[in-house]
UniProtKB/TrEMBL annotation, chains A, B, C, D:
Residue span(s) of domain Adenylosuccinate lyase C-terminal: 352-432
EC primary class: lyase
Keyword Zinc-finger attributed: no
Organism: Jannaschia seohaensis
UniProt-listed CDD domains: Adenylsuccinate_lyase_1 (cd01360)
Record's protein name: Adenylosuccinate lyase
Family listed: Belongs to the lyase 1 family. Adenylosuccinate lyase subfamily.
Length: 434, 434, 434, 434
């Protein structure tokens, strides 16, 4: 976890305080359930709630763990210091450490998912607003970095919206998948604990009981969760790369907002660098790098080995904190992004008129010219534009074969931009609904 | 694609013949739609169907591509050789190569998904059958590779069933996500083609029109698809590792079926090696290795660059063919797997009675012994079993403090195995339904 | 292996014919050594060489393997068909399959390394030639995609040269690391075979005996090998990205060579797309994706498990074939790349004079202006150039404070380009030697 | 960075204090060099050393960065607070932020490499000691988890030694590769700074000047560095997996040292779990997951983009800290590991005598039996041992065909263990030298 790439709300989910709080709730609710089943005395269950408002002392727990070398036992020992060791003696009865650890981890991941879902919703709102704003802002579409045909800036925002909307659905699925708990004992047989304890604890924590667990909750759930984060991070990179391209000196169709106090470079004061989106590109690499380790965690030995734990101690916080930060940063970038519509227009004329070549090609074929001949006609004129930056329309008007096929008016008609934007409303309706 | 790790049905999806067949259908259906809209003459659309039963000549298309260096143009040229170049002149009109390539790729991925779904269903059937068969077959559950408490072999199969059932759901989601097509032109604006052409083609091919495409279908869909394959591969490894552990000489609780003609090793004829599941472990690594490249494909430049293409030419076939093979191989392993119930029983007695120690611990606390004292009582007797392989029950019966706390009958009661299996039915109901 | 991304020489290393040829040589040389040690009769060793010029029948070996399910036994059976089963009966004596398989794999990887080394040498030659050619070709250097200060195209080629030269050294190290063989028996103890057999076979095949092997050669060697390929692939991407940027419409400082028959796009005939370097970008992702599976292969169980095998059957050929193809393709791109020096010059004037701002800043500080003031002076003039594309030099000449600090001549002096290229010779000497 | 998986010395390399200290030294040495060249006044260079013993105030620098949004400027501003802003005004002259940042990063990585090299040396010492100690400790070698032939525990330690020794060499190469610095200005042309400044600073910091840099040091160096860490991590996993297998209940040939205060599990007090090596398995996944992000960092745009920075801020510390911790932990495990020689012996007799079957096979062929017949003879007897756990030797002695071929004494001779260990000295000499 890198402080500069972190936001407090997500960080707090992963604090020791939060973790111990969740552990406490699991144990306390489990005691309630056991008391209701008559397995432990009601007063002992009630006694546990004495610690309800306690902020657990992380340093003290660490101190105990240094001796016991076992985190859950250290916590339980500390809990007994608050509740009284006599009263606390039924706490955790019939449970195994992983019942607490795994259920708590999934509570944390579920809460993290809630923040990420809210992040995505915020990003979607920003993307939608900018899409509407620039629905009709003409710019050139590019394939291979090369000018192709006109499109609009609104369509660019709209496709990022659609992509992030898919990510929102994926994130919701991932949240649903990870929202399970297990209180099933040492090998998952409920030998020493009634399944109704699990049901009660899960219900209180907003989880579904894991249908079948071993000592642990199966890690394919976590793998799917982190894989989803990896996909979302890759989409963030997708948007970031677009912004970085737009901001490069020769293109300059857009730019990250540049606050006045900010210095772009110690040496070149005029430089407005797309540092936020470059940063997002790097953050995407980080989150992606956590996907395979999460997948390697799936194949645990028999009813569990603990190899997954160190991986999750790192990627649990790191992936969610980094992605939360990245989504928030991207939302800010989109929200305040500068759009240079004049440059969009002048860029389209880098090779004047050439972006209309496909349309001319089509018009020629439709006018009865063979595909090969039409291709040749367009190509010979296009190459002149390419080499001498002359105007494509004028070249065509001076090309007898083209004029013979299309007529002068027919040629002129191919350069009407509205032709390219006529379906923008249709596409927006498909993306945003009517 | 490695022939020895391939099955013909999946391989055939990725053959050039299949690809050209799909291309053909896209073009032909697009002509129909354009004819219906009055954009091209009906007879030209009809003419295209003359090639309906043609097997396209891959070598001839390759030959043309060697000149044009463009695969779709090569195909269209060859198609014109069948349909007649005059009749074929409206084919592909207003479309861009990616309209064909991307829609075709998604048809292939969708068909691959259908096979993988069927594979998973087959695997689930095998797992369910074996789970039912061994529902009550007692074996020791292990955490950290160390004996913990009794469980049953049926529970092992049942948890793999539950995991693969989640994978089936993930695969269905992935199929749904990838089943889109796009016929939207050079930058996705439908400038030269009516959106109704896309709608018609997609409907005929069983796809949903991509709500907003550029020149290409957005690659987050493909990233999510391959990530799902990576999760499934990791689950395959999970099952494979269990089998490998069961088969190791000292454990020998199960084994891959061993056909008579098979030689285990050129040097050690008696060896029955778990080579199939070791192979599956390796195949899982391969499929996982394709996830990050698929994610790196998401951030294409502007309306597209073609960097994704080489990645997909390799991982499209390789990931689906490998996973199909792996699922089929695993199904065979599960189906015919040998289960050595006697060894399960003798393994449980490696340290006689020690697997009951947690239960004894619990009984002691319930009898009013403090957690720390109970722990100590169990530990001192357990260590003797550990060191001298004496019987745990007998140790306890000879330990005055334990007898004082539980009574002799109370001690005996802790060694009843039924205690550990009493919730197996409950768990089975949760996994398989009632 | 994708035929279109493959070259025959590298492909042939991985053919079954090549593999069986290497197996044959291992067995035959091993027989010689055993005969020399008096372990087997000399005539039997000599008899094996009867098959010296045989092209082994792959189909026949596959047929035998279908029965025996063991590839080495299948090969030995077939070999006996050539040599005579009586004469062949000492072949492979005391050896284990992996002695053959692993030694053969390393022969293949060593040969693949030789090709890759030659590829890198070819690429270095092309880079050096282009570097010399464009040593003094001025273009703007960019950080963050934003104009920074002048540099030369020769420096760009030179840094790719230096990077690829490091890769050459890495590749040589990787080759050295992988050039080991092992003939050490079932668990590496030489129980049934004299270490001198290993020494003889390795010497004949150009390998070093693995100092300590188990049944297999340790896989950290292979992991380091494939990791090296991943680094090289990433460097290829680095060069490819530069070319792609240079070719984008607004930049157009360079382009992949465009042959006349080639069609850039079915729809936009004028488009000269950087498809080769986009392809290289994708190929880099593929090779990188094979690094982690190779690393996961390191941790085999005890003296070996066979999980590495399926991984290597795929990535052995795929990584080397793909990288060989990519290096050759990149060499072609560099060799024939078009450089548009005029566009380099006009791009530098996108914001006239602004690339000199750092130098002006420095001149101001050196003239006694405080860092903060100098920054402010440069910034206010730079922003005007940024906004109105006016000439930076003229702005400065009209700024009284700047004139007061530097004098008019002092300002003019900052716009001398030679200032930026004065150390190019020094750098070239560091890269290419004197 | 996870505190529980960190060691202070490595952590301190990555502290802000260390970083600012290195930045300071770079700037101060650069001033010296510039003064020596007459570029800045000597007294200003000397003045910078006034801060020689200052502990920079991280909080204050962060405060300034919050305004300037630029870390190097913030540092320089703070430095001026110590040195005096008049005196400090030539600090950083002609340099660009990356000159400082990149050179400092490589200083950190070089120092981290030194620790890792020392770690590996410590691990090698432990492995060597245990190898010598157990040179002749017989245990069964296993392939596929199945008993193969006898080997010794010393050979196991020796092969880990050889593997880690290769890793030591790789780490030294990686250190050498990363030990470069660059003070070459905004685009690497030395326009505003003399190359002799770079030479001086590098010499003082123990670095080699980067032959050709842009704004940054090329990232293929870092990719190779982190790839090396990934290989080492995979070797750690290799050793860890061996220990985990040895410790599993049914095998129990070794165990991690178990301190008395440690509680193995909250529920099963007798359990001695291999938690350290399971932990190492997870840590290996983490380090491996950082390799591909480091490789993705290679392809920066033009003379640099800053996408690499966030990646390195995380993986720089995380990979080195994690690997340092893992190496130290593994050294402790090896150093104190319990070896259960009696269990090694009893495990070898799981299927009495069967581990000698390859040798019998060989003896039969050498006695003139055809390969196929010998195979059949061994197989039929081996299967009985497999099924009924009878003694292999006795089976053979009762098999007329075998007795006919080998004689009774000949059969007995095959069961001499010394046969398998006769080359241990040879192998040790190859690994450890004479």
């Amino acid at each position: 976890m890198i402080p500069r790439y972190s936001r407090p709300e997500m960080v707090s989910i992963w604090s020791p305080e939060s973790k111990f709080r969740i552990w406490y709730e699991i144990e306390a609710h489990a005691c309630d359930a056991m008391a209701a089943l008559g397995v432990i005395p009601k007063e002992n269950a009630e006694a546990v709630w004495k610690a309800k408002d306690v902020e657990f002392d992380v340093a003290r727990i660490d101190e105990i763990e240094a001796v016991t070398k076992h985190d859950v036992i250290a916590f339980l020992t500390h809990l007994a210091e608050h509740v009284g060791s006599e009263e606390a003696r039924f706490v955790h009865q019939g449970m195994t450490s992983s019942d607490v650890l795994d259920t708590a981890l999934n509570v944390q991941l579920t809460r993290a998912a809630d923040i990420l879902i809210a992040d995505l919703e915020g990003l979607l709102a920003a993307l939608k607003r900018r899409a509407m704003e620039h629905k009709d802002t003409i710019r050139v579409g590019r394939s291979h970095g090369i000018h192709a045909e006109p499109t609009t800036m609104g369509l660019t925002f709209a496709r990022f919206y659609a992509e992030m909307d898919r990510n929102l659905r994926r994130m919701r699925t991932a949240r649903e998948e990870i929202a399970t708990g297990a209180i099933s004992g040492a090998v998952g047989t409920f030998a020493n604990i009634d399944p109704r304890v699990e049901a009660h604890v899960c219900e209180k924590l907003g989880l579904i009981p894991e249908p079948i667990s071993t000592q642990v909750i199966p890690r394919d759930r976590h793998a799917a969760f982190f894989a989803t984060l990896g996909v979302i991070a890759s989409s963030i990179e997708n948007v970031a790369i677009e912004v970085r391209h737009m901001q490069r000196t020769e293109v300059l169709e857009g730019a990250e907002f540049f606050s006045l106090g900010q210095k772009g470079s110690s040496a070149m004061p005029h430089k407005k660098n797309p540092v936020l989106t470059e940063n997002l590109t790097g953050l995407a690499r980080l989150v992606r790098g956590m996907v395979v380790p999460a997948m390697e965690n799936v194949a645990l030995w028999h009813e569990r080995d603990i190899s997954h734990s160190s991986v999750e101690r790192m990627i649990g916080p790191d992936a969610t904190i980094t992605l939360d930060f990245a989504l928030a940063r991207l939302t800010g970038v989109i929200d305040k992004m500068l759009i240079f519509t004049e440059n969009m227009r002048s860029n389209m004329d880098t090779f004047p008129g050439l972006v209309m070549s496909q349309r001319v090609l089509l018009a020629l074929t439709q006018a009865g010219v063979s595909r090969e001949d039409a291709y040749a006609m367009v190509q010979r004129n296009a190459l002149k534009v390419w080499e001498d930056r002359v105007d494509f329309r004028e070249q065509l008007l001076a090309d007898e074969a083209v004029v013979a096929a299309l007529g002068k008016e027919g040629i002129e008609a191919q350069f009407d931009e509205a032709y390219h934007t006529k379906h923008v409303d249709t596409i927006f309706a498909r993306v945003f609904g009517d």
